[in-house]
Amino acid sequence: MSNIPTDKPAVDAEALAGALRALGMLYGASQPLAEIIAGAKSEAEAIRMYIERERPHLLASYDLETLVKMVQGAREAKTDAKHGVEQFSPSDKPPAKRRN
């Protein structure tokens, strides 16, 4: 065995991006995910960094560790979630009101 250091990051940014995308949490980030999570020593730390920087409003409704577990669960499931934590409508019109 050799102890040659590798340049492999501690976090798989592509897999994390897929999980965030599946939950509807990746759109509108201020910069690429890899830059936001640079320096994270674990996946959980990277998720915390992302949420605290890009989605702090979620912390008004969700516990940070709950959000971390949601993102990790989405990554482990490797599925495209049908419903997200956030809903994004790129329309400039307000959403139509529902009829009762």
Could you explain how this protein is built, in words?
This protein is mostly helical and 100 residues long. It has a domain of 65 residues.
Present the secondary structure layout.
Blueprint: H1 13-22, H2 33-36, H3 43-54, H4 64-77
Task: Produce a short descriptive summary.
This protein is an all-alpha fold and 100 residues long.
What is the H/E string? HHHH
* Class based on secondary structure composition and strand pairing: mainly alpha
| Overall average pLDDT | 83
Question: In angstroms, what separates the terminal alpha carbons?
Answer: 68 Å
- The number of helical elements comes to 4
Proportion of strand residues: under 5%
Largest sheet: none
Q: What is the number of E strands?
A: 0
**Uncertain regions spanning at least 5 consecutive residues:** none
Outline type: elongated
Q: What is Rg?
A: 16 Å
Helix content: 40-55%
Task: Give structural attributes.
4 helices; elongated; mainly alpha
